[in-house]
Design a protein that fits this description.
729 residues, metal-binding, metalloaminopeptidase activity, Creatinase/aminopeptidase-like
Length: 729
């Protein structure tokens, strides 16, 4: 699903101590090992520790092509109007009193550093017309540029008009955003970043910076090399000033309880684990801002973000209490009772900064994840901490000629200090317990039944000569999934791409602006669902006619890579980038590759993209795969303006029963969660080894065994036909 393009940045000092969970209803323990998440990325502002300075002079040849096919997404994100009017209006604000900047940076994220966000926070999409989930826009007084990664190069070409420069992050000769700013701005310029001036209600009570603390600090440091100044615009969001009345309202979906039979561990036990982590780290409180971490920790689910069952909230956990900062209108009586039983107090969403200030003034030592905590929280904590330190110093001066301020956990002379390290919740959430795994298995089988019904319908319609658009196909798949027990939503926008559209890695068809599904071209379908007990994500690529020899070769090599990763057995200390080459090696043999990671983590009835684990060629993620994690296996190949191929299953990391254990280290392997046929017509059998043919036949045997009891009639016949053994001619 929506393959990830992961940053290679890391800070090797951020490690967590091991944790163990014990469910009140199960004696099973879940062991988690030290990790470092580098999952969250911000194209344009993530750097390797050593990097060469690149010149902007190489960028003149990569201006985005004018597009007559700009995405139309409701009135709020309508990009059909000339983009230069929006840029002109934005630039006019640069010189207004109280602003005075030379450039403005517009990231993708909301105040919680979410990958997928509510529509009212899609500022970058509004100003640029580019709607991909990853990207950073930078506007100066005479230039506008947008950085995104390889998943979105073709989409950027289509959606950006000629006023924008498309920066293809990771390509040779393409500068980072800060390098570009240093090159195009005169020394001493001022670069603005934006706080969020939200809506009436709780949202108005706080200013939430869109930048994480470490991203803001990194940008500040990098542009200082040319004497540029980073300016925090406290009182106004410049994009909102242009968006005005057409900006969508804030989300207000009710929160629901995620039942213990699916969660596996109760709230009290999870909070007890978290407090033990605070003790080990020498902290007395933690601020949690990642929405999926809050949902997981409190066994809650929401509907504020499309496709992601989360709610906008902050959480503060101290050694004595737990406070959830959320819009109270979303809290049902059932949720209120659930939180009370877990010892959780409710506070207005907009009062989070007041709480941070209060904690700092008391000398509280906070655990802050710099990759997710926004700059507003970090700066509020620092400013209030400085006041606390000054007050202690003044108090001591009045009593002693040799003042010493000491309020650190070890008697150090300082004010309240933050422990800046990765959130301990990230890893705990990634390592699924037996109840979560069982829910994921069950959800995938029901999803497979829906897909069997869908493919039966689609093949029949195509063979009858029906003219179906990519949107028609996507909508029909949704209908089949909605018939399954426990269905809640899709887990991401369905990628339904015929022919050349399949080469756009994160393509999303729009009504009135999409293609007819062509029986003579490859068709790529990447989709997923949110069920009450699990999250699914699957990609299949098919041909309704006769594929070319080239298409079959490319498909088969992608399949070989998929098989190689699926069958991998590896030491328990192995990190994802080591496994990535397994999936690429068969493409490499003929000089082909793909521009995205091979696998991402997946939440249990949570976000379809989850860290800290990944399987990617980018070596910065040093998180080892661990028993209980779930990852995707999705190699692909994309021929620009021609076709796209991807084969994706979800995998559960399990213990491997190896004959030996060299060095006393255990070994791991994968268990399949996805059971949907892989089209045999696309396979060039002569390229496969006997072992690879056996793998495919065994997989299809499992598909029939597990899914056939859930379908009947024509869908059962389709499943039977598509799971028959492949025989070498």
């Amino acid at each position: 699903m929506r393959p990830l393009y992961l940053s290679c940045c890391s800070s090797s000092s951020r490690y967590l101590s091991p944790i163990t969970f014990f469910s009140s209803s199960s004696s099973s323990s879940l062991l988690a090992k030290p990790i470092l998440p580098t999952f969250r990325t911000n194209p344009g502002f993530k750097f390797t520790q050593s990097r060469s300075r690149l010149s902007i002079r190489n960028c003149s040849s990569i201006s985005a092509k004018p597009s007559s096919e700009l995405r139309k997404k409701k009135g709020s994100l309508d990009s059909s109007k000339p983009e230069d009017k929006k840029l002109r209006a934005l630039r006019q604000l640069f010189s207004k009193p109280g602003i005075g900047i030379d450039a403005y940076v517009i990231p993708s994220q909301d105040a919680h550093q979410s990958e997928f966000i509510a529509e009212c926070y899609m500022r970058r999409g509004f100003i640029s017309g580019f709607t991909g989930s990853a990207g950073t826009a930078v506007v100066t007084k005479d230039k506008a540029a947008l950085w995104t990664d390889g998943r979105y190069f073709l989409q950027g070409e289509k959606q950006l008009n000629s006023s924008w420069i498309l920066m293809r992050s990771g390509n040779l000769g393409v500068p980072t955003a800060s390098e570009w700013l240093n090159d195009v701005l005169a020394p001493g310029a001022k670069v603005g970043i934006d706080p969020v001036s939200n809506f009436v209600s709780d949202f108005d009570e706080t200013e939430q910076f869109l930048f994480s603390f470490d991203a803001a600090e990194e940008l500040k440091e990098d542009i200082a090399r040319k004497d540029h100044e980073l300016v925090y615009l406290y009182d106004v969001n410049l994009v909102d000033e242009i968006w005005k009345e057409s900006r969508p309202g804030p989300p207000n979906s009710p929160i629901r309880v995620h039942e213990l039979k699916y969660a596996g561990v109760d709230v009290v036990s999870k909070l007890s684990f978290l407090r033990s982590q605070l003790v080990d780290a020498g902290c007395s409180a933690i601020v949690v801002s990642m929405l999926d971490e809050i949902a997981w920790l409190l066994n809650l689910r929401g509907g504020d973000v499309p496709n992601s069952p989360v709610m906008y909230a902050y959480l503060v956990v101290t050694m004595d209490d737990t406070k959830l900062f959320v819009d109270s209108s979303k809290v049902t009586p059932e949720v209120s009772h659930h939180l009370k039983n877990g010892g959780v107090e409710l506070r207005p969403y907009g009062s989070i900064l007041s709480e941070i200030e209060s904690l700092a003034l008391k000398g509280t030592e906070l655990w802050l994840d710099p990759s997710s905590i926004n700059a507003a929280i970090a700066n509020t904590y620092k400013a209030a901490g400085d006041k606390h330190l000054e007050s202690l110093g003044s108090e001591d001066n009045s009593k002693s000629k040799n003042p010493k301020v000491s309020n650190g956990s070890s008697g150090q002379s300082w004010g309240p200090c933050g422990v800046y390290r990765a959130s301990p919740i990230s890893l705990a959430k990634a390592v699924k317990n037996p109840y979560e795994l069982e829910g994921m298995r069950n959800a995938h089988l029901r999803d497979a039944a829906a897909l069997a019904q869908f493919w039966t319908w689609l093949e029949d319609e195509i063979h009858k000569g029906a003219k179906l658009t990519e949107v028609d196909v996507s909508d029909k798949l949704l209908e089949f999934r909605q018939q399954q027990d426990g269905f809640i939503d899709t887990s991401f926008d369905t990628i339904s791409g015929s022919g050349a559209n399949g080469a756009i890695i994160h393509y999303r068809p729009e009504p009135g602006n999409c293609s007819i599904v062509d029986s003579k071209k490859l068709f790529l379908l990447d989709s997923g669902a949110q069920y009450v007990d699990g999250t699914t994500d699957i990609t299949r690529t098919v041909h309704f006619g006769e594929p070319t020899a080239h298409e079959k070769e490319c498909f088969t090599r992608v399949l070989q890579g998929h098989i190689a990763l699926d069958e991998a057995v590896f030491p328990a200390t192995t990190v994802g980038f080591v496994l990535d080459a397994f999936a690429r090696s068969f493409l490499w043999k003929i000089g082909l590759d793909y521009r995205h990671g091979t696998g991402h983590g997946v939440g249990a009835a949570l976000n379809v993209h989850e860290g800290p684990q990944s399987i990617s060629f980018r070596y910065g993620n040093t998180t080892p795969l661990q028993k209980g994690m779930i990852v995707s296996n999705e190699p692909g190949y994309y021929e620009d303006h021609a076709f796209g191929i991807r084969i994706e299953n979800l995998l559960h990391v399990k213990e491997a029963n190896t004959k030996y254990r060299f060095g006393g280290i255990g070994y791991l392997a994968f268990e399949k969660l996805t059971f949907v046929p892989i089209q045999k017509k696309m396979v060039e059998v002569s390229l496969l080894s006997d072992a690879e043919i056996d793998w495919l036949n065994d997989y299809h045997s499992q598909v029939w065994e597990k899914v056939s009891p859930l379908v009947e009639g024509s869908a059962s016949q389709w499943l039977w036909d598509n799971t028959r053994p492949l025989v070498r001619q």
